[in-house]
Amino acid sequence: MHPAREASFIEMQCGALEHLANHVSHLTLPRVQRTKRGTLFAEITDSFGQKRLVWLLSFLPGVTLAKANPLSPEILEDLGRFLGELDAALGTYWHPAVDRELKWDSSRAGWIRDQLHHIEEPSRRALVGYFLSLFEKEVESRRSDLRTGPIYGDANDHNVLISPPWPQPRRIAGVIDFGDMHHGWIVSEPAIAAAYALLGKDDPLGVAREIASGFHRAFQLTEAEIAAMFPLIGMRLAVSVANSAARKKQKPGDPYVTVTENQAWAALERLAKIHPRFAQYALRDACGLAAVPKTQKIADWLIQQGNSGSSVVEADLRAAPLHVFDLSAGSLMLGADPANAEVHSLTRTIFERMEQERVAIGIGRYNEARLLYTTPQYAGDEAQRSERRTIHLGLDVFVVPGTQVCAPLEGVVHLLAENTMELDYGPLVILRHETGEGDEFFTLYGHLTRETLRNLKPGQAIQRGEAFAHVGTLQQNGGWPPHLHFQVILDLLDRGAEFPGVARASERSTWTGLSPDPNLLLGIPREKIAPVESAPQDSLPRRRELLGGNLSVSYRKPLKIVRGWRQHLYDETGRAYLDVYNNVPLVGHSHPRVVRAGQEQLALLNTNTRYLHENILRYAERLMQLLPDPLKVYYIVNSGSEANELALRLARAYTRNDDTIVLEHAYHGHTNTLIDISPYKFNGPGGGGKKPWVHVAPLADDYRGIYRGNESDLGAKYAADVGEICREVQSRGKRPTYIAETLPSVGGQVVFPPNYLAEVYRRVRAAGGVCIADEVQVGFGRLGTHFWGFETQGVVPDIVVLGKPIGNAFPLAAVVTTREIANAFDNGMEFFSTFGGNPVSCAVGLAVLDVLEEEGLQANALRVGKLLVGEFRDLQQRHAVLGDIRGSGFFLGLDFVQSRETREAAPDQASYVVNRLREEGILTGTDGPHHNVIKLRPPLIFSESDAAHFCQTLGRILHEDPAQPGA
Ligand code: PMP
Rounded to the nearest whole angstrom, what is the distance from the C-alpha of residue 640 to the centroid of ligand 1? Predict the structure, then answer.
């Protein structure tokens, strides 16, 4: 220890560590190793003859927070929790040296007041001045409201240690350096931690929220303390830059003084853009309190007013006939096609529905997640690039243009404005009100006429019930169907006419706290207005109770999907996810052409194949153009399993026995027989093992299989093993059926070595057997180079099974075979599948083929697939975890390994990447026997820019600690 240090200072720290060891032994902290004499520390004389105090602490393993990548919300929450527990325990510790004068003690931070002149650049000086005055106004003047106690006081990112990347989630592994411990404000602790953790982060308030929430759970903060937290965060950074500026003058060139300086300036600039009261509300919300302190009081008052009939139109909405519209992300009325939300189309839909329902008033809900906000001003900002604003904060009243708008409460005109941007408020009025107890709040009226603005003056008193405005037309209201947007605002946050009417879902509870439900006042009966869409946390338990337990859900944080459009899926909050995973929506989710084909046919006729119908014939003829001779006979069914089941029946009718050769890890469907021929299932959890008539051949995988490398005879080598089985089957007087995916997907997106299937089919046929190609996953142009997987191997199967993408998500599947096999099956027993080949599914199948052809999608898969592989090869240079990259077109696999040499699978890393991609708004999944292959099978419309976005995000995640091989 520095020679100048006093014994009491060391005694205070060592004493604190011992106190913590006794009171919160579960917190991993350095432990004091007492001297042989039993003292906490000792005095020695160093080689310069100087006396020094020394003490010994145990070593804490861990990585510093500064090095954590990513600094996840879980780590930040845990940091808050750790510090909360630490300070709660320090509350019962005392040592006179705790009460010390320290420039890093936030309660003394005002010392920078007379240091500001050291900051040379005026704008920077002003920035620090801003945080200083915020501190003076919001914190210093209220110091009596802030609890004090001994605090650790130095949770900077070099003092906080975290656990290794695995197991997830990472936890705080301890804090070191108690040298800044002091008697200070309790809330300074999370504020200091946040000030450092948010350096370099796009979303500083998000960081502060996590830390506050964790701290509050362990050591409850008071409302006054939460209110002080944001100013204290800013002040900590202000002290840091002011200190650097002063020290730079004293000690020019000292790097220690300026370590965090640049980042601190950048953070101050970012924090200055956040309204301090908004930060306070967000932090209150994070701590589980009502975002705005006066919410409940005002809400109660509004309800009271509403009870005596407050309305915004002439009619009393409590009783008036009205129709409540569902404009949510999952609205059936809107559907997925954005064309339906185009203003003229939407206006027609809304007003026609009102006419049908014979009502003059339509209502759009408050707190509804919508995808109507398509212009750039609703796009994610710097902090939340992928998150658009979707949550409606007002209530819409759809009425004919010119309808009078009445004041539901007595008030004063606060502001008149015209927001002219597309999809903004258009002409708007904000009225100011006061409750009986003098609490101020506002009401906002958007999409009015310009004339309304001309007739009013700021400061003008408006009586309750007074018609003070009119609803505008779509030409002047910002481009919306005519309606009034009515919103209650408890705090305008100095934003005036720019106060948002739509918020980000991640800040939903803060914004709905700021803008409570206008219906508190209007009183539309609850049952009429109740939201339809429940959150995932509500759906999950119902699903568990109602549905079979072995129905799995993807991702650590399950997704609730309510809409699909092209290559995106949308959750209930309106968040878009780029779909790189689902091969079923071949031509894109909800393709209008396919949808229309199904809807039109369903509205006319859907029946079974015992009546003649053109659709099934047209469909078989279209498929025939795509399949080689002698595949001439078609069976249209409803699912891949039904098709594979039928394919087996056909094969068995032909071979007259059961013997079936399958590949390791294969999956062919969920029926009894298909489970029996699916090693992925019968060898997996709950599986009943292999049946005697099933023969498992090695998976011809040149990366993980029994024969590896790229020798030219690899295919023949694997085929020889199938030949062995054929010989054995034949020796018992039987004829084998060979079934395999033409590129095994469940097996891990495997590409057979050249010549494999040709050699296999030759041997199976030589043994009098039948070859089934399961094209359920890979067919229909996905591979880019070829329309069917079997074409890549230069073979023609005896039976082909088609499914999944065939109907673009409509239940449809098909079996195609030769006349000879079909004849063997046609043995007198009728074949009938009630829904198989129905006019609707065939209409859908035809539309899918039309789109595929007209949009040139196979060529797109080839072109963009090549780009993807090129990018992956680049990533592979930089990331050892990418062991193998395989596949073609839009059927690709990334094989994650612990080591390139051993090829040991890295399933944890793969799953981590998949879950992180999901957080970033991109959907993928893992597969393969070791669950270590990231499987990519996007809709064939996946574009070049989708590919670029995906690769960029993947590249970023591959740098993260838990994605590293051997981690
Ligand atoms: N074959 C393969 C190769 C499959 O991947 C699947 C489904 N994952 C099936 C058959 C069964 O199809 P379905 O789920 O439509 O019954």
Answer: 5
Which ligand 1 atom lies nearest to the CA of residue 813?
15
- Taking only the tens place, the pLDDT of each residue in 416-462 is 999 999 999 999 999 999 999 999 999 999 999 999 999 999 999 99
Looking at residue 1, its pLDDT comes to: 57
How close is the Cα of 852 to the center of ligand 1, in Å? Answer: 21
C-beta atoms surrounding 529 within 10 Å: 17
CB 149 within 8 A of CB 183: yes
C-alpha–C-alpha distance, residues 657 and 659, integer Å: 6
Contact residues for 273 (Cβ-Cβ < 8 A; gap 6+): none
Pocket test for ligand 1, best of 584, 777, 788 (most atoms within 8 A of CB): 777
pLDDT > 90 in the chain, percent: 94
- Cβ(265) – ligand 1 distance below 6 Å: no
- Protein residue with its CA nearest to atom 8 in ligand 1: 669
Output the pLDDT for position 386: 67
Question: Among residues 591, 642, 614, 643, which one has the least CA distance to residue 849?
Answer: 591
pLDDT digits (tens, 9 = 90+) for 852-904: 999 999 999 999 999 999 999 999 999 999 999 999 999 999 999 999 999 99
Count, in order, helices (H) and strands (E) of the chain: 28, 36
- β-strands 389-392, 737-741: how paired? unpaired
pLDDT score, position 551: 94
Distance (Å) from CA 581 to ligand 1 centroid: 15
The tens digit of pLDDT for each residue in 139-151 reads: 999 999 999 999 9
Q: Long-range contacts made by residues 272-278, C-beta under 8 angstroms, separation at least 24?
A: 272/127, 272/130, 272/131, 272/234, 274/204, 274/205, 274/230, 275/493, 275/494, 275/495, 276/134, 276/138, 276/230, 276/231, 277/491, 277/493, 278/493, 278/510, 278/514
Nearest alpha carbon to residue 280 among 292, 271, 268: 292
Which helix (H) or strand (E) segment holds residue 484: the answer is: strand 483-489
Encoded tokens for 357? 């329902």
640 lines ligand 1 (CB under 6 A): yes
Does residue 669's CB lie within 6 angstroms of at least one atom of ligand 1? yes
- pLDDT given for residue 151 in this prediction: 98
Check pocket membership of 742 for ligand 1, CB cut-off 6 A. no
Beta carbon of 886 within 6 Å of any ligand 1 atom: no
Q: Who has greater pLDDT, 260 or 574?
A: 574
Q: Compute the distance from residue 823 Cα to the ligand 1 centre, in Å.
A: 26
641 lines ligand 1 (CB under 6 A): yes
Structure tokens belonging to residue 777: 């996953």
Provide the token pair at 67: 């090095």
Q: Are 187 and 107 in contact (CB under 8 A)?
A: no
Ligand 1 centre to CA of 668 (Å) is: 5
Ligand 1 centroid to Cα of residue 818, in Å, is 22
Identity of residue 134: L
Q: Name every residue whose Cβ is closer than 8 Å to that of residue 527 and which is 6 or more positions away in sequence.
A: none
- How does pLDDT run across 203-245, given as a tens digit for each residue? 999 999 999 999 999 999 999 999 999 999 999 999 999 999 9
Average pLDDT value for the chain: 96
Going by alpha carbons, the residue nearest to atom 7 of ligand 1 is 669
* CB 774 less than 6 A from any atom of ligand 1: yes
What pTM was computed for the model?
Answer: 0.96
446 CB within 6 A, ligand 1: no
668 lines ligand 1 (CB under 6 A): yes
706-763 confidence digits (pLDDT tens): 999 888 899 999 999 999 999 999 999 999 999 999 999 999 999 999 999 999 999 9
Give the mean model confidence (pLDDT) for residues 7-32.
96
CA-angle at 643, arms to 641 and 644, nearest 5°: 65
User: Which protein residue's CA is at the shortest distance from atom 14 of ligand 1?
Assistant: 640
In angstroms, what is the span from residue 8 Cα to ligand 1's centroid?
A: 73
